Structure formats: structure tokens, C-alpha cells
Amino acid sequence: MLDDVDTVRADVTGAAIGMATERAFFHWEQEFPDVFHHKGTKDTKAGAEHLGDLGAFVVDSSGFDVVLGNPPFVGGLKISTTAGNKYRSYLDYAYDPFKGTADLCAAFFRRVFAILRSGGMAGMVATNTIGQGDTREAGLGQIVQHGGTLHYARRFVKWSGDASVEVNLVCWKKGAWKGDIVLDKRVVMQISSRLDDEVEQKALTLHSNRGRAFIGYYLRGIGFAIEHSEANILITNYPKNSECLFPLLNGDDINSDVSQKPSRMVIYFRDWKLERAQEYPELLRIVEERVKPERMKLPPSSSDYRKLRDFWWRFARAAVDMQIAIRPFNRMLVKALTSEMHMFTFAPTNIICSHAVGVFAFDDDYHFALLQSSIHEMWVRRNASTMRTDIRYTPSDCFDTFPFPQSPSAAAKARAAQIGGEYHEHRRQVMLARGEGLTRTYNRFHNPTETGDDIAQLRALHAQLDSAILHCYGWSDLDPGHGFHQNERGQTRFTVSDAARREILARLLKLNGEVAAGEREQA
Question: At residue 387, does pLDDT exceed 80?
């Protein structure tokens, strides 16, 4: 019987080695048998840890003392294209929670943690999103949760040879750390999985926020978009074409255009069958010539491969829930999802917003004041990810977790709405007078050498807006300390003081937990 078991084990081992040789796999235990000589049992009660990696049990008596590495960086949405759907599915299963935009780098961080012995240490080069969003949750968040201690980190390090690329340097110990903890060359009390010196605490999703924040339409085919001049000709030739032609608002329009006007039009056939789209032959011909060929080239590894090919005349995603949410309104709040500055504005609801635009189902000045405020901005910067130096606003992380004022008085809410309306109108007049969009306006806003009366008034209104929102929360005891302060990148910004920022964030996190607990009780 034992001989049979040995034979089966040998056969399986041989097959595994053959597959690893053929596929160029790297098997840690076969490469380093002296390091991974298990003396314990695969039982969590016997000191083993399972970190989501299949078979990656680490027993105290095995593992590396030190691991140094520079793992590959691949954005989560590109992993399937680069390595295939099966590999992506493996990551989702083996390194749960590995979801959404989580970078491949996070899986390597988890694997390194798994192959360290208890008390072992690691130093890794990381993508600049390692402490942000889905990548943080899949990597450092799990490492900290399972007993890892981050004791050294440097953020915003320029990569040699390409100044536009930033990396983070991260070191941790598998266990407690008794020495100095250093963040960006400063000794701090702790380093969280977000690579800041705040207390480790996860913001919880609030059910009461759902159905208000959305990502725009995902076209998956730039050929849907056409110039205004071409659209005008198409409508002149066949007036019925206007039923399927809409202004297309993208992130650059919001940030750069003086009036945030859509720069192009877009052909939108909704969820129609092909027969109905054929009632607009000129528009369908454009889509067939400019979109269909690219759709037909999509590899089977692409997400929604068959849907994109079979329904080539439709957008990849039509944002139906968003359409329902904004239907009662004539205007909606919008924001470029990727931007260095924190900037909200209003747009009409009878347009198409691209996937680079966040859409918020509010049409009133109070919610503009709340979302444009420094209070929301600091929450965003804590929970968002980045693209180079830009902030990537993801509604699931930045909005769905944001605790709104729970019971603002009617007077406090009316005051905030009044300031919000004045702020929005003054900012609009500044942009029109100067011929500059939101980004250039806020560059002036944050520049201490800019002394124009119009910009000074915008700063004063912003300070009033923040104070009004703090009153809505019932936090009028807090001094915002508005002025020019340096952020973690060393950039000068007109905002609240660092002490106020820390206190506001602490209160927001506390409120987030209280609201989430109340929702669980009511469920």
C-alpha cells in the first residue's frame, strides 16, 4: 500500500515538474528544498498561516529570512489581456481579495510574505498604487491583517530613466517590529497599509450611498465619437439622425474647457437590435466602418469578448442605473475621474458622459458644496488610487464609503447651499473672464504668488464653504486653519491645516463606522 502511495506521489511530482519545465513555472519549494523543509503540519492551529495562495502554508520552521525584489507592475484591467483569463481567475481565487484594478504587484507582495519565515523581512519596489484602492486591499492590507509590520516606506520616488514614473519602496517584517519606523525619512508611530502614518482602519461601504455615484458610458470604440461639424451635416441630411446623436462629455472637457462643454458628439444606439439601428443608415455605416473592425480584432481573452463582437453597434456598457438615477433632474454633478485637482461642476443630463467621467445624481447646491469641500477631498485622497501625480476617483472607494452629515439642521444645510451656489457662480465668472478652465483656475487658486482679487475671493468662498459643511456635521468646534500648506508630496496647496485634516479624517472614519453599524442593525 505504501509503495502504491509512493508511486502515485512520484507520478504526480514528475507531472508537475514536467509542466513547470514546459510552462517555465518557478516552484519555490522545489528550487529551495532546504528552506522549505516543513517540520510542522499544515494546520493553522500548529502555527501555519494561509494567505490566500494555493498551498502557501508557511510554518515557523521554514521560509526565507530576507526577500528583496522588484516585481512586475501590471494594472488589474490589463492582466487578462497580458496573461489570459485563466491566470486572472487564478489570481482572483488564490489571492482573494484580488479584484477590480488590483495591480499584479500585489500578488507578488503576498507571495513574498508567504515564503518568509516567522520573523523574516522583505524589501520590495512597488507600483505607486500599492497603498491605494484595490491594490492595497489585495496586497499590503492582507499583509498587515495577517501579522506583517510595515517599518520603512518611501513614496513618490522617481524611477531612474523616466521621471514621469513613480514607485514606492516598502519594507516589512513578518511579526512585530521593535526598531524605528520610518516613512519618507521621518520617524513615525506606525505605517498603515495606505503608506501613511495614520491608524490602520478600513472605510466601510455604506448602503445609504448607493445609487448616487456612477461611472459614465463605456464606449469601447472611439469611432462612435464624431466632430460637431460632421454631426451637423448628418442631421441636415436626415433630421431623424438627431435621435441617436448626443453631446459626449469627457474628462478633458470638464477640466480644460472654459464652460465644460462637450467637445464632440457620439452615436448612441442604446440597447437596440440591429434591425432598429438600420433605420439610421448613415450613422450605422459610420459605426460599421470605424468601430466594427476593431471589435472584430478583439482576442478571446478580452472581457465580454463575444458581446462586444456580436453587438458591435452598441456601447460596451450603457450605464442604465445612472440613466434611471438622473432622470428626474435637468442637471447633474460631474467630475473628471482622473485629475490632479479636486473639482466638481454641473452638467446637463441630456448628454452622454464617457467612462472618464464620474456622474453624481444630485442637482442642488448643497450637495455641490459637500462634494467640492475640503472635507470630501481629504476623504478622496485617503481612499483613492493615483495615476502618476493624478488622483483616480473611484466611486466605490471614494463615494460609497463617504459618511454624509447625518442630521444637519435646516439652517446649516441652507447656509451650505447658499455658499455652494455663490462659490459655483463666482468660479464660473472667473473662468469666463480669464478664458481658463477648471485646472488652470485651481492652479492659480493654489499658487501663493497669485494675488488677483477674483482668486482671493474664490479662496475666501472656499473657506466659508468648508466651515458651512463642518457646521452640517456638527463640528463647529474644529478650526480648519485654512491657508497655504504643504501636502505629503511637498506641494503647496490652499487647504485646511494638517492638524485639522487629521482630526477631520478621524471623525469621518468614526462616523463611517457608526453609520455602517446602524445599517447592519436595520438590515
Answer: no
